[in-house]
Design brief:
single chain; 333 residues; alpha/beta; TIM Barrel; 7-stranded parallel beta sheet; 3-stranded parallel beta sheet; 17 helices; globular; binds hypoxanthine; binds zinc ion
Length: 333
């Protein structure tokens, strides 16, 4: 790590786009497979890592859902979440708003309660023991039907004290946000905030749909907004946050090379972009690795790094007073 890399690691940051199932490192996958007597289609940690070559989102999702099969008990979900939070601590990521995909687990017969209780206990322990605050986001899998999303929303209602918002993830192309307008309306009526993946592989029009039909607070990814100049202007005017995931975008071939990534260009144009890790165990790193990859390829100034960190707190679901505290702290750097 050079001095600037060290600065990026120590910069207080918030992470707003990270799938807990995507933080399952091969080592823990192996451990949980043994604990739960599950046979993996790999015979070593190295073989798992070697399989992480993707040419698009679906390639990745196939492996990601397979990996999640080792998660069985409440303790497994606790251990998964805790391992992520320890990484956050080491990288000075002090506020997190992670996603989880209940349908990946309930479809395999794991109880919703098992998933949410394990995750929630780790998040509460992290607040106490690591000083990391959090808000949890439940995602609907968009490749599954609307009826399945409605059933999942129903299951979440008793846990509203533990879940701040709902999101939309999985295979994007062919599954536009409009398919989930009704379930998002019901979620908002129940008191959940909303976010959605849009404009990662799907077209800029999906971003418009997420804004207009799902009434999202943030767009997850959103990098294809540049294909519609009027949309970019709109995103700037309403200061709509985009939770951009640079290493993910390279691994899934959304951009060929980090030097072609548009995150700093969007930042300079006044779009409220943030940097996030998406699925850190699969894409080559956590928050610091994402900041470093952008800084090395583009390059990034210290002022830009601070602005990205400031955006991450401002785009969070923290209160205005909490946001102001973080901004003040960052402006002293
Ligand atoms: N896009 C869509 N679905 C996902 C992703 C992603 O980047 N990561 C985990 N599920
Ligand atoms: Zn994602």
């Amino acid at each position: 790590m050079n001095t600037f890399h060290h600065f990026l690691n120590e910069l207080p940051k918030a992470e707003l786009h990270m799938h807990l199932e995507g933080s399952l490192e091969p080592e823990l996958m192996f451990q949980l497979a043994q604990r739960n007597q599950i046979t993996l289609p790999f015979d070593s940690v190295n073989a798992i890592r070697a399989a992480y070559q993707f040419s698009n989102l679906q390639d990745f999702l196939d492996i990601y859902y397979q990996g999640a099969n080792v998660l069985q008990t409440e303790q497994d979900f606790y251990d998964l979440t805790w391992a992520y939070l320890e990484r956050c601590k080491a990288q000075n990521v002090l506020h997190v708003e992670p996603f989880f995909d209940p349908q990946t687990h309930t479809e395999r017969g794991i109880a919703f309660a098992t998933v949410i209780n394990g995750i929630d206990r780790a998040l509460k322990d992290a607040e106490q023991q690591l000083g990391i605050s959090s808000r949890l986001i439940m995602c609907f899998l968009r490749h599954l039907p609307e009826s399945a999303a409605f059933a999942t929303l129903e299951q979440a209602l008793p846990y509203q004290d533990k879940i701040m918002a709902v999101g939309l993830d999985s295979s994007e192309k062919g599954f536009p946000p409009e398919l989930f307008e009704r379930v998002f309306t019901k979620a908002r009526e129940a008191g959940f905030l909303t976010v959605a993946h849009a404009g990662e592989e799907g077209p800029a029009d999906y971003i418009g749909q997420a804004l207009n039909l799902l009434k999202v607070e943030r767009i997850d990814h959103g990098v294809r907004c540049v294909e519609d100049p009027a949309l970019v202007e709109h995103l700037i005017n309403i200061q709509m946050p985009l939770t951009v995931c640079p290493l993910s975008n390279i691994k899934l071939c959304v951009f060929k090379d980090m030097r072609e990534h548009n995150v700093l260009e969007l930042l300079e144009r006044g779009v409220k972009v943030t940097i996030n890790s998406d699925d850190p165990a699969y894409f080559g790193g956590y928050m610091t690795e994402n900041f470093v990859a952008v800084a090395d390829a583009l390059p990034m100034t210290k002022a830009q790094a601070i602005k990205l960190a400031q955006n991450s707190f401002e785009a969070s679901f923290l209160s205005d007073a909490e946001k102001a505290e973080w901004v003040k702290r960052l402006q002293q750097l």
